[in-house]
Amino acid sequence: MQPITELGPDEVFVFGSNADGAHAAGAARTAAERFGAVWGEGDGLHGQSYAIDTMSGPEVLADRVAAFLRFASEHPELRFLVTPIGTGIAGYQAHEIAPLLASAPPNVVLPPEFADLL
């Protein structure tokens, strides 16, 4: 998958964040610079971005992914483009994250790193 640099009007960039919403590097920085992520907001929808806290431990990560999947299910009019959340600075492996996304609705597009494992 190529890096996401543009979104259609109904698309949302889904990225890994930290609880403090310090979007300083990687996909979080892209979200802040291009897609409306708000500094200081580390969870949820902001602009055309959706932050998932990947830095507060595996239980929080699982909870926040579940919340995201509920949100995506409630918004079928949107298409959610998920980056390889948690596999950068958070230090998880794709095989640890992919199962959390196994029940993703059809409007959630997973990166190959996860989709290939499901």
How would you describe the overall organization of this protein?
The chain has 118 residues and is α/β, with parallel strands linked by helices. The two termini are 16 Å apart. It has a five-stranded mixed β-sheet, sandwiched between helices. The protein has one domain (11-115): Leucine Aminopeptidase, subunit E, domain 1 (3-Layer(aba) Sandwich). 29% of the residues lie in helices and 18% in strands. It has helices spanning 26-34, 58-74, 94-97, 112-115; strands at 11-17, 44-46, 49-53, 79-82, 108-109. The longest helix is centred in the middle third of the chain and has 17 residues, at 58-74.
How helix-rich are the residues, as a percent range?
Answer: 25-40%
Whole-angstrom Rg: 13 Å
SS-derived structural category: alpha/beta
| SS elements, strand count | 5
* Contiguous helical run count: 4
How much of the polypeptide forms β-strand, as a percent range? 15-25%
Largest β-sheet summary: 5 strands, mixed
The CATH architecture is 3-Layer(aba) Sandwich
Identify the CATH class. Answer: Alpha Beta
Average the pLDDT over all residues and give the rounded result: 95
Fourth-tier CATH superfamily name = Leucine Aminopeptidase, subunit E, domain 1
Query: Within the CATH hierarchy, at the fold level, what is the topology?
Result: Leucine Aminopeptidase, subunit E, domain 1
**Measured distance between first and last alpha carbons:** 16 Å
Label the overall shape: globular
Order of helices and strands: EHEEHEHEH
Question: What is the domain tally?
Answer: 1
Widest sheet: strand ordering: 2-3-1-4-5
Low-confidence stretches: none
